[in-house]
């Protein structure tokens, strides 16, 4: 279901915001080179005062260039600024997907102006892939601009629907233990069930997910078709979900969460502060099976003169002494 359709059907239960169609001019800029949006200066050894002055001059020029750069798409700047004025900050989604793979570029998904918004869009490989996919399918690319909220881990959940039945409500991430979830168990199930009564009468696919934030109110973050990525960060897998869906003796929905600190599944980002996009599958598997080897790998990287990180669109060089 298109974001604009979701917006028209569920505006009252969605996080506040709006949906706009991306025109070709804006898409062309998103697919273009990242300009001065992201600058990594690295660490350089300064040998004398003359070199130090030259280094400071380059730094100043880069900073000025970044501050002066502005997206050429005026309507894009205006719509971001309008929503920032309303909400204090926004986050963006393209064709229903958040730009999570570009979060490291800004340190957050929070956007406070058009430049930051365009930076995330240009730097997101996920956004590029979605734009191309929709182009090939003859679909319109849509951008969601929604109120940015600092969401506590204990307040965010992913809900799994199988054959139009709500089967599991899950803690969104399994790398944290939150005692408040257990304390609020009945409240969480009650609020999600009430929300699902509004949702279930509308036609989605047979199996889908929706993410919610529950504090004083319950709000929908977004809907998505169910696929392999739906289970990333969950405390269960697809087989367990389907088994629960078939079991007539199981009271549904089930609430899944990390029940004690022993069941936390740590992530590379949690330990090293480096985005998982920079690690290949082999390194991630090593982290899960033998983290000490990854520590050795990482320390080896620190001994290099230059650490090169690739993400299909940009080559990022870290100069390390």
Automatic annotation (TrEMBL):
Task: Give the organism, scientific name.
Answer: Entamoeba dispar (strain ATCC PRA-260 / SAW760)
Q: Which family does it belong to?
A: Belongs to the CDC123 family.
In Swiss-Prot or TrEMBL terms, this protein is called Cell division cycle protein 123 family protein
How is this protein annotated for GO cellular component?
A: cytoplasm
Q: Which InterPro entries match?
A: CDC123
Q: Where are the transmembrane segments?
A: none
Matching Pfam families: D123
């Amino acid at each position: 279901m298109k974001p604009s359709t979701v917006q028209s059907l569920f505006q009252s239960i969605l996080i506040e915001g709006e949906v706009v169609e991306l025109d070709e001019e804006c898409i062309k800029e998103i697919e273009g080179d990242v300009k001065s949006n992201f600058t990594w200066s690295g660490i350089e050894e300064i040998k004398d005062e003359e070199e130090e002055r030259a280094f400071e001059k380059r730094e100043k020029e880069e900073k000025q260039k970044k501050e002066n750069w502005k997206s050429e798409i005026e309507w894009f700047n205006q719509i971001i600024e309008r929503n920032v004025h309303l909400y204090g900050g926004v986050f963006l989604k393209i064709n229903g997907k958040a730009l999570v793979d570009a979060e490291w570029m800004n340190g957050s998904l929070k956007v406070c102006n058009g430049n930051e918004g365009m930076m995330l869009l240009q730097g997101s490989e996920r956004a590029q892939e979605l734009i191309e996919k929709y182009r090939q399918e003859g679909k319109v690319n849509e951008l969601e601009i929604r109120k940015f909220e600092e969401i506590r881990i204990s307040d965010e959940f992913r809900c799994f629907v199988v054959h139009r039945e709500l089967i599991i409500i899950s803690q969104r991430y399994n790398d944290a233990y939150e005692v408040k979830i257990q304390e609020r168990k009945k409240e969480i199930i009650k609020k999600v069930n009430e929300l699902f009564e509004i949702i279930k009468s509308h036609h989605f696919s047979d199996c889908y997910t929706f993410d919610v934030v529950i504090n004083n109110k319950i709000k929908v973050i977004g809907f998505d078709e169910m696929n392999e990525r739906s289970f990333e960060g969950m405390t269960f897998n697809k087989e367990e979900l389907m088994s629960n869906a078939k079991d007539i003796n199981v009271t549904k929905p089930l609430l899944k969460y990390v029940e004690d600190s022993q069941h936390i599944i740590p992530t590379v980002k949690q330990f090293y502060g480096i985005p998982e996009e920079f690690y290949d599958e082999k390194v991630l598997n090593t982290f899960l099976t033998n983290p000490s080897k990854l520590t050795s790998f990482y320390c080896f990287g620190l001994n290099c003169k230059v650490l090169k990180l690739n993400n299909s669109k940009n080559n990022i060089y870290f100069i390390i002494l």
